[in-house]
Design brief:
The chain is mainly α. It has a single domain, classed as Ferritin, core subunit, four-helix bundle (Ferritin), CATH 1.20.1260. Helix content is 71%, strand content 0%. The protein has five helices and no strands. The radius of gyration is 17 Å and the shape is elongated. The chain starts with a helix and ends in a 16-residue tail after the last helix.
Length: 174
């Protein structure tokens, strides 16, 4: 049985993941409007990934007969000063999500909820990758803010591949 404290916090995290989806969508639209198709595609994909994370959490709660509660989402930032700002915002968001995921893992461990602890292990691994990706992208975008073509080339070369993970939790509705 899933610990009540974990269920409550995981429901909160579902909202956090959906808020990240919306924020990444706003970043994608910003880059799309600048005719930066590689950056736009990257952030559209990131938005979908965040939505999938929320739905993995939903599926886990459904699978464990725990209640699912999706709350109101905060607004998003949709105007940016330059091409660097959305990536800087995304990196800070990923660091915040990492802390939230670590807290969920800690709660599962404190509650001696082995299944939830194991479930959160995948997200811990995922957050290491997310922070590293955004850190690298921020370095590239900052260095090349006046050379958009260089940014686009980097994204196409380094971030354009298929990131499917067969060990990922099941996505609700998939």
């Amino acid at each position: 049985m899933v610990a009540d404290r974990f269920v409550q916090q995981l429901n909160t995290q579902i909202g956090n993941e959906l808020a990240s989806h919306n924020q990444y969508l706003a970043c994608a639209v910003y880059y799309d409007a600048l005719t930066m198709p590689q950056m736009a595609a990257f952030f559209y994909a990131q938005a979908a990934e965040e939505r999938d994370h929320a739905l993995m959490m939903v599926q886990y709660l459904l699978d464990t007969d725990a209640p699912v509660a999706i709350g109101a989402l905060p607004g998003t930032v949709s105007t940016f000063a330059d091409v660097v700002e959305p990536v800087a915002l995304a990196l800070e968001a990923e660091k915040k999500v990492t802390a939230q995921i670590n807290d969920l893992y800690r709660i599962a461990r404190e509650e001696i909820d082995f299944a939830s602890e194991q479930f959160m292990g995948w997200f811990i691994k995922e957050q290491v990758e997310e922070v590293a990706t955004m850190s690298d992208l921020l370095a590239v975008v900052t260095r090349n803010k006046d050379a958009i073509e260089q940014i686009e080339e980097y994204v196409a070369r380094e971030l354009g591949g298929d990131d499917s993970d067969p060990t990922a939790p099941k996505i609700a509705g998939a």
